[in-house]
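Good day; I would like, with your permission, to put a structural problem before you. A protein sequence and the structure tokens that stand for its backbone fold form the material at issue. The record follows directly beneath this note:
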Amino acid sequence: MWFNPIVKAVLRSPLHGLISSSIMLITYTGRKTRENFTTPVNYLSMNQDGDQFLATISLRERVWWRNLRNRTPMIVRFRGKDHPAAAEVIEDDTGVAENLGTYLRLRPDLAKYLKVRLDATGQPKDEDIVNAAKTRVIIKTQLV
């Protein structure tokens, strides 16, 4: 995407605070090319089962996230600092729906981008979460 170099530059600069509360850089090694890639991704800091992790959502049709399978080690530039990290990719529909539901209950304002409707109480509708999960993956990044 044409704006990725701009986002990378901002996140590596003293001005990172403008966007680093919701965007981080991940640097990983390609599984086939063995080249290093750095990609900006949106994230949400979450707690689940006593662990804190950074959750990222991607469309299944994209291919970059496949490099993160099997807890691939990577470097995450998170809030202005580099951290070693490992990712867990959740691909099964049930796991994606469960994590997507948690994500959207914390940030219901993001539901519209995933075509998930909110109920009368402002919470995401379960049937829409299930449908959205069919076309998405969740990447859970754990800082180590």
Remarks:
- The chain has three helices and seven strands.
